[in-house]
Every structure is written in C-alpha cells, then in structure tokens.
C-alpha cells in the first residue's frame, strides 16, 4: 500500500476498478477511503526530494534528482519557512473547463515576482538582455531543464512555437498581437540550444510583462510560447503524412485539425501532454466524473534554499461542484486553497466558521469596481456631444451617494474611487480617481445645468439639449465579480432621478452582450474594468477595440479605420491611443512609466469611467495548516490569482492529515 | 394491428425530421453563434480577438454557411454515418459525450422512476380507497407540498440542513475522499448515501402528481355500477379493488410512459445542476447556453425520437391493457 509505484500503475488501469483494488491490496469489504497508495509517508526534513519520488528512484523508475534538476535550478526563498513534503491539496471549481489548474501547470520564460506590484523576474530564462533600445531581446535558458516526461527543454521548443504555431495560418489565423509591436510581427532566432533572440522592427515595451502573463503565453492560450516540440511533432501536419493524420484524428475526433492539435496540447484534458510547471495532470475529468487530479512534476526546476526540490505538496485534487456546494465545502474546511469561485454572499458564513472548522480567510486586495461607462462614441451626435462634456459626467458622478452604497453593500468596507488603475499599479499616482466623487446634489445640478441641460419636461426630468425627451438606457449582464451590475444601475437610477436624469436599466444575456455591445449602439453600461497591469490588457483605458465599454466605436476604429462600427476619435481620446502606441514601443522603463501616467492622468481629469464602490477585499481560503501563503497580495487574473503566492513553496504542517 | 403499426412507424419519420429541423433552427435563432461564446470567454480572461481572426475561425467551423445548409450537412452525416457531429465546446464527438453520461443519467432516472411509481401506486390506491382517513389527509398534504415546492429548492434546503446539522456537504455522487478510491463497501455505501437525495428530490415532484391523478381516477371508478355489481357478488374487497377499478385507473400511468422515456434520457436539469450531478441535463443546458449547436441538436434529436417511440409504446400498451382502447380503434385489433 505504501508503494507509490502501485498508485501510478493504478491510475493507469483505474478503468478496471475492481481488479485494480485487488492489485493494490484493498479488500472490497473495507470501508476505508484510503487510495491505492499512501502519500502521507512521514516527510524527512533533510530529504532533498519528496519520498514519493525517492521511492521511484530506488525502483529505477525515475533518474536520481541530480539528473532531473537543471545545472542551475531556480532557488526560491519560502515566504515563511522551508516546508515538509507530502499531502493532497483539495480544491473546488464551478466550471468543468480549465481554471485554477492552468496556474499550477504553468511555467514562464519569465515569471512574476511574488511582490506588489509584480515585476517580471527570472523563470525558465535565467537571464536576458535588452539590445538595440528594445528591438532585440536575448533570453538565456536554464541549461538542463526537462519537460515533465524527462525530455530536455531547449530553444528548439520555442522555435517550434514560433514556426509551427504562430506562423501556421490554421492554428493562428492572425499572428499574435503581443509579439507584434506597432503591428509588425516579430521574429524568433535560435542562437544555440539555450539562447534565443526575439527581434522586432520597432522597440517592444511590454515584452517582459507579456511573457509572465498566462493569458497570452500560457498553455491554454492560442499564442503560447512554450510548446513541447518533441511531443507535438507527432500531431502536427508539417511532420506527419495525411494518412497518419487521418488515423490519429479517428482516435481523437475533433471538428478540425486545429482543434485536434490544440486538444493534444490541452493540459486540462490530455494527461500525456508534457508540461514545465510544478504539477501535472494525471487523471482528467471524465464522463460524469467530477474530479481531476494533478501530481507533482518530478522534473520541476525550482528548489528551496536548502536545495530541496519543489513543490512540497504531492498532489492536487479538483472537484467540480455547484457554487452553493463549493461555498459550503469551503465553510466546512474541506477546501485547502481557494480564491476563484467563492461567491460574495457566502462570505459571512465563511468568516464565521473559520475558527471552528480550522481554515483561515486571508484578505487579498480586490480589483473589481463596477463602474458606469457612458458611451463616448454614441451614434447620436447630440448625446455624443453631451456625454463628452466633463460637466455632464461630473454632474452624474456628484449625484451618486457612494457612502450609502458602501454601507448597504459592503458594511462600509469598500473603497471609493474612479477606476484609474489602483494604488498597487506601477503607473498609479497618489490622489488619482478622486475627482467629482463626493455626494453633492447641488453641485450635481449646477454641473448638469452647465452642461446645457437646463430645460425640463412636464415630469420635471431634464430634456436633451435639442429639447427632446431624454431617457438613458443602461445595459448590463451578470459579470460575476464586483457589485452586481444591475444593482449599480438601480442605485444610479434612484440618485439620478433626484437631479432630473431619467435612467432605465436593461439587463441582457452574455451571449447577446458580446454580439451587440461591440457595435457601440448604446447609452451606457455598468461593468468593472481592470485596474492592475492594465498596460498588458489595453482595452480598459485605451479604446483599442469594440469592448472598450466607454468608447466602443473609437475602439473599433483603432482596430480598423474602415470598420463599419467604427468612429474616428478626436482630442484627448485620440491622444490616449497615440500615447499607448508609444508606450508599447518604448523599452525604457522611466519613459514607459511616464507615458502610462499620462494616460491615467487623462482619465483622472476626464472621468470617462465613473466609479462606484469597489469590493473591499478578495477572500483567499486556506487550510489551517497550509504554510507560506501570502497574507496579502492582489487577486487578479493578470497575476494568476492564488499563484501570486507561489503554490510550489506552500506546504502542509501536518501533511499526513491531507493524504 | 400490423397495418396500424406500419402506419404509425411511417408517420414517425416526418415528425422526427420536422422536430429536429425546427429545434436546430431555434438553437440558431439567438444572435451570435458558438464563436460569440468563445470571444466572451477570452474577453473575461482579458484577451481580444480581431475581426479578421473571427472570420477565419467562422470559416473553419463552417459557421459562415446558412443554418439550413448546416442542418442538411448535419442530418446527412447522422443518417449516412451515424455521426452526430462534434461538440465545439468539449472538442469531442457528441456521441462520446453522451455515452459518458448515459450510465449515470439512466441509472438515476430508472431508480427515480421505479421508486416514484412504487410509492405513488401504493399511496394513490390507499388514499382513494380510504378517502378522508387520517393517512389520506397526510398523503394529500404531502403531495400538495411536493407539487408546490420546486425540486431544486428541496435539494438546496436538504443540502444546507445536512451541512448545518451533520457538517457534511452532499454533492456529486461520492465524497471527495472516495472519488478516485477503488470500489469497496465503503465507496458503495458512500454512493448510496449520496444517491438518496437526488432520487428523493426528483421523485417528489412526479410522485405527488401521480398520486393525485391516480386518486382522482380511482375515486371516479369506485362508484361505478360495475364495482357495485362485483361487490354484490361477494367479491373480496381487496381483490375487487385491484382487479377492476385500479386497472382502469392505471390508464394515465401507461399513457405517460411515452414522456418517461425521453425524461430518463435528458435528465432533470435544475436539480442536477444544483446537486452537481453530471447527467445529460446540465450538458444540454450548457450546450444551449454556449450555442454548441451539434451537441444541443443531438440531444434534442435523440430526446424527440425517444418521445415519438415512447408515445407509440404507450399507445400499444394501452391497447394491450384496456379493451375499450382496442375496440375504439374500430377493428384494428383483428
């Protein structure tokens, strides 16, 4: 039972459940939930690797640690203390698709430092040089790093991603934008097995940040840079005959070759796909099953200060369940690490139970601040001119009683600010996002009058500048983070009525939303914009596409001046776009910071996005004996949520209780 | 009878085709398509898809063709190759996805159906035969509750009470610690411990309705002259009840078999979603939400074929059980 080998074998034959249980020595009449192996073996503090792995080395199933680690492993300083090996991390998720697993299977050429704000730090590349003012980046890969199947990771893997993924029109109809500063696609050049050059026609200002971000470079993404060439060649059109491909596609049916290929490198569905992160998938979700299992990557290339291989924790189990159950399980102390999918309404229960059920709730900095986005690119020229007046937006903002909303929704704990990045963002300057924010009905009326809304209809509501009746329609859908968008619109409706502005709320389905909203034919929407690392996700502050909610048509124009839903911006809004174009192509940090601040200052002065009340904190649920968890950090997709606390260096104080 | 059967079978074909066409078109009616959902997902993760990229993707998936063209391509593949197409969302063939979920769906459906009918039969007959007895009032009260309270609400309440009182959270089919454990008595008991809740909740709604119908029907029959006649001949009361009026009162049961069969297949959506049961119900819901049309279309098509078959079976059974139905067809029983 304690032989870890039997578990590995067991997992492979788990279809034959009954016979497997006999092999593993479990009696059918046992009521014990112990799995076919016990991973709770007492962890020896002096051991350089997990007992699970040393047993495999002893059996000759795995090369010794020295051969698995690179020449120069990355040394991680644990947040509190060096850990113990072992344990299973229990986690939950609502969606059956890939969510949290991608962050713990991820490894970056560069990785975020565990700091606030997060900076690009070394990862698979131990060092790098920026040459020719940022037109050339040279990355020096850690020598001897291996994929989770033991095959070496080299510059050839990156070349494979460039040549066979990015340049393949079927896999990527358009070359990834993040590798094309100024719209000009970059080039990868292999110098030697461990050196790679990325060359661009114009300087690249954000490359290092992009490389850390899973949304662009992770395995789930279509523009991932880290692909196991040795494994994927057997599925790629360029390397196999059409006949071979046909046989393979019969085995793994998919609508198109590109779906088939992506399916083979899907780290959530295909347990064979090699990875470079700390844990790898061994048992995917199947059929009506609700759990998936990840186990430690025996070739992971990070160690602690004593040279002990990470991760400390042996495996992770993901259970799919409805939101209500997930909350109850968390409140029962059955989930060991959870940031995503915790619903706001479950918070009181979670906080109340933490003592008695032995888990803790850390308060991380939250991002969402559901805001009112007036459509600056409104198709109606009268409303467009009105919306573009600072006085109008100032009037609407002054009319909102944010303190009342804060007290009612967050017991006064929320933050009050217009989205203008947030204090933890490197471009933020103190005092930003506070303009027109205080509740002042007199001032609001004064401002609205000044905006030219002096005439009122028989119902006492203000008329449009051209004398017609004015009713603004606010659109929203259930986003899932921040204050419910519909509540924000309902509050606004009440506050604005008091100053003579008529608003109706109109919720819609997400499907309809993404179909209609990018056309830009609406008055305003409620939506929480991003406020951290917005430079690598431009659309929130700079109209760069149709989902820039406060100026969709200008965003469409930026993407394609001939877009039939586009409109050419002028003045400060156009300036945002040119500033951002410069920012993307500025490699010098100080100059880049200056450009970013100019963008935020324009937002600060113009209040294009009217903020309401921000979520006070993002709860992070952690098992009582889970160590090395950061007490505070920013919970954001762009820093990979809980991964801001590097799960590979987390450990259980009593791993035997988590087997 | 044979002629009748052939006629019925022939009439089924256009019915099924028509339903499948209409449902396929309805799935396509909302604005956007599967790619809209993809873009939405990417957007939530902070990624953006350009319009040229979108057009290329649309062509790859043949989503740029007209809905009718898509339908004919889909139907031809089903008829000629038995291929229901691919789910975009899961990147798997529709048939594989359904196959994976059918054991749980059917198992749950059958268990619910058997338990539900057994309870309903006994309670319904008792409740009619002993009208206005204390137990009848209890049954009646419970059935009204069962009818009035939606299943998902019962499920939520029970899940919360279990958590509150016993500190356990029932969801899925086995506890997390047993999830990838090998099969032993413990896991079996654990499975049963999880199974009772969905079966109870799913059965409650149906049972209540059936009890009421059976009770009403039986009450109608109990006062008919043939019952009096049989009683006058000194037939034992229990024998009489079971042999004559109950048989007649069973007709609505038999008539509804037609709906039971597709219900077994496509499962209960709400309760399954609340309890985290991965049956075909939530699969269909997700497919509809994300406009994964071949998956949704496939499930609906199979459900409608089963409905048509179920109706036929119901009719045949009714004819077999009830002489009046046979004779009503005007000599087709010859």
UniProtKB/TrEMBL annotation, chain A:
Domain Solute-binding protein family residue range list: 119-538
Keyword Signal tagged: yes
Membrane topology recorded in Swiss-Prot or TrEMBL: Lipid-anchor
Superkingdom in the source lineage: Bacteria
Subcellular location as annotated: Cell membrane
Signal sequence, renumbered to the chain: 1-24
TM regions (residue ranges): none
Short name of any one Pfam family annotated for the protein: SBP_bac_5
Main location as per UniProt: membrane
SUPFAM superfamilies (UniProt xref): Periplasmic binding protein-like II
Family annotation (InterPro entries): SBP_5, SBP_5_CS, SBP_5_dom, TAT_signal
Keyword vocabulary terms for this entry: Signal
Name of protein: ABC transporter substrate-binding protein
Species, as recorded: Kribbella hippodromi
UniProtKB/TrEMBL annotation, chain B:
Keywords: Cell membrane, Membrane, Transmembrane, Transmembrane helix, Transport
Family from the record: Belongs to the binding-protein-dependent transport system permease family.
Family annotation (InterPro entries): BPD_transp_1_N, MetI-like, MetI-like_sf
TM annotation in the entry: 9-29, 104-126, 138-161, 195-214, 248-265, 293-318
Mode of membrane association: Multi-pass membrane protein
Name under which the protein is recorded: ABC transporter permease
Localization per record: Cell membrane
PANTHER family named among the record's database cross-references: INNER MEMBRANE ABC TRANSPORTER, OLIGOPEPTIDE ABC TRANSPORTER, PERMEASE PROTEIN
Lineage, opening ranks: Bacteria, Bacillati, Actinomycetota, Actinomycetes, Propionibacteriales
One Pfam family named in its UniProt record: BPD_transp_1_N
Broad class of where this protein is predominantly found: membrane
Domain ABC transmembrane type-1: from-to ranges: 102-318
């Amino acid at each position: 039972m304690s032989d870890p080998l039997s578990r590995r074998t067991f997992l492979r034959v788990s279809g034959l459940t009954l016979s497997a249980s006999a092999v593993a020595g479990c009696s059918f009449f046992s009521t014990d939930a112990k799995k076919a192996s016990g991973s709770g073996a007492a962890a020896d503090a002096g051991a350089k690797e997990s007992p699970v792995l040393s047993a495999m080395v002893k059996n000759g199933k795995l090369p010794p640690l020295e051969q698995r680690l690179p020449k120069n492993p990355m040394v991680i300083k644990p947040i509190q203390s060096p850990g113990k090996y072992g344990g299973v991390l229990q986690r939950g998720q609502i969606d059956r698709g890939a969510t949290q697993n991608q962050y713990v299977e991820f490894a970056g050429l560069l990785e975020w430092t565990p700091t606030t704000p997060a900076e690009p730090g070394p990862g698979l590349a131990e060092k790098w040089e920026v040459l020719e003012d940022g037109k050339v980046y040279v990355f020096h890969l850690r020598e001897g790093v291996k994929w989770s199947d033991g095959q070496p990771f080299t510059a050839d893997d990156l070349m494979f991603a460039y040549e066979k993924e990015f340049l393949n029109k079927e896999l990527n109809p358009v070359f990834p934008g993040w590798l094309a500063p100024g719209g000009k696609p970059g080039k990868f050049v292999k110098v030697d097995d461990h050196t790679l050059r990325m060359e661009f026609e114009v300087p690249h200002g954000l490359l290092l940040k992009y490389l850390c971000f899973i949304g662009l470079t992770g395995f789930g993404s279509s523009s991932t840079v880290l692909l196991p060439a040795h494994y994927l060649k057997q599925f790629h059109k360029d390397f196999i005959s059409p006949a071979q491909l046909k046989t393979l596609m019969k085995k793994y049916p998919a609508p198109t070759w590109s779906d088939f290929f992506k399916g083979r490198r899907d780290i959530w569905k295909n347990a064979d796909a090699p990875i470079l992160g700390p844990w790898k998938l061994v048992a995917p979700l199947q059929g009506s099953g609700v759990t998936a299992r990840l186990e430690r990557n025996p070739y992971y290339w990070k160690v602690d200060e004593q040279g002990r291989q990470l991760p400390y924790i042996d495996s992770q189990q993901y259970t799919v369940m409805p939101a209500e159950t997930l909350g109850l399980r968390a409140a029962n102390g059955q989930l060991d690490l959870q940031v995503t999918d915790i619903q706001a309404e479950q918070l009181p229960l979670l906080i109340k139970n933490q003592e008695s059920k032995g888990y803790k709730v850390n308060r991380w900095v939250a991002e969402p601040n559901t805001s009112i986005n007036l459509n600056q690119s409104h198709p109606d020229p009268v409303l467009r001119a009105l919306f573009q007046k600072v006085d109008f937006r100032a009037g609407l903002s002054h009319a909102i009683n944010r303190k009342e909303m804060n007290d009612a929704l967050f017991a006064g704990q929320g933050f009050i600010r217009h989205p203008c990045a947030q204090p933890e963002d490197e471009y933020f300057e103190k005092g930003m996002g506070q303009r027109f924010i205080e509740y002042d009905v007199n001032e609001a009326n004064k401002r609205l009058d000044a905006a030219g809304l002096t005439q009122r209809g028989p119902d006492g509501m203000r008329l449009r500048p051209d004398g017609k009746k004015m009713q603004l329609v606010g659109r929203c859908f259930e986003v899932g983070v921040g204050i419910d968008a519909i509540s924000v619109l309902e509050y606004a409706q009440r506050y604005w009525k008091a100053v003579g502005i008529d608003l109706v709320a109109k919720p819609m389905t997400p499907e309809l939303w993404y179909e209609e909203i990018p056309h830009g034919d609406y008055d305003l929407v409620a939506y929480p914009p991003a406020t951290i690392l917005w430079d690598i996700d431009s659309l929130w502050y700079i109209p760069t596409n149709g989902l820039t909610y406060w100026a969709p048509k200008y965003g469409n124009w930026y993407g394609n001046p001939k877009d039939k839903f586009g409109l050419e911006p002028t003045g400060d809004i156009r300036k945002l776009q040119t500033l951002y174009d410069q920012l993307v192509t500025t490699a010098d940090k100080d100059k880049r910071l200056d450009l970013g601040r100019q963008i935020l200052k324009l937002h600060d002065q113009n209040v294009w996005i009217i903020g309401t009340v921000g979520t006070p904190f993002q709860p992070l649920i952690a098992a009582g004996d889970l160590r090395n968890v950061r007490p505070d950090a920013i919970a954001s997709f762009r820093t990979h949520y809980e991964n801001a606390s590097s799960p590979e260096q987390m450990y259980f104080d009593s791993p035997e209780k988590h087997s | 009878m044979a002629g009748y059967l052939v006629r019925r079978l022939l009439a089924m074909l256009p019915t099924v085709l028509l339903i499948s066409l209409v449902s396929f078109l309805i799935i396509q009616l909302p604005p956007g398509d599967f790619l809209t959902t993809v873009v939405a997902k990417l957007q939530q993760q902070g990624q953006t898809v350009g319009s040229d990229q979108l057009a290329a993707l649309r062509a790859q998936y043949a989503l740029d063709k007209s809905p009718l063209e898509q339908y004919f391509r889909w139907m031809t593949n089903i008829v000629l190759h038995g291929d229901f197409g691919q789910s975009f969302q899961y990147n798997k063939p529709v048939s594989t996805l359904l196959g994976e979920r059918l054991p749980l769906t059917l198992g749950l459906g059958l268990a619910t159906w058997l338990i539900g009918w057994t309870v309903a039969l006994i309670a319904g007959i008792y409740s009619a035969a002993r009208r206005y007895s204390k137990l009848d009032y209890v049954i009646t009260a419970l059935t009204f509750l069962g009818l009035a309270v939606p299943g998902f609400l019962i499920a939520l309440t029970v899940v919360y009470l279990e958590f509150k009182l016993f500190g356990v959270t029932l969801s899925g089919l086995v506890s997390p610690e047993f999830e990838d454990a090998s099969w032993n008595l413990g896991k079996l008991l654990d499975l049963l411990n999880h199974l009772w809740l969905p079966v109870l909740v799913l059965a409650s709604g149906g049972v209540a309705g059936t009890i009421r119908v059976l009770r009403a029907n039986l009450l109608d029959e109990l006062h008919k002259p043939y019952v009096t006649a049989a009683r006058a001949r000194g037939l034992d009361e229990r024998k009489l009840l079971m042999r004559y009026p109950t048989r007649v009162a069973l007709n609505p049961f038999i008539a509804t078999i037609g709906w039971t069969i597709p219900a077994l297949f496509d499962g209960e959506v709400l309760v399954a979603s609340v309890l985290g049961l991965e049956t075909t119900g939530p699969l269909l819901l997700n497919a509809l939400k994300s406009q994964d049309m071949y998956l949704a279309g496939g499930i609906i098509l199979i459900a409608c074929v089963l409905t048509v078959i179920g109706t036929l079976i119901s009719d045949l059974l009714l004819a077999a059980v009830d002489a009046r139905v046979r004779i009503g067809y005007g000599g087709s029983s010859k």
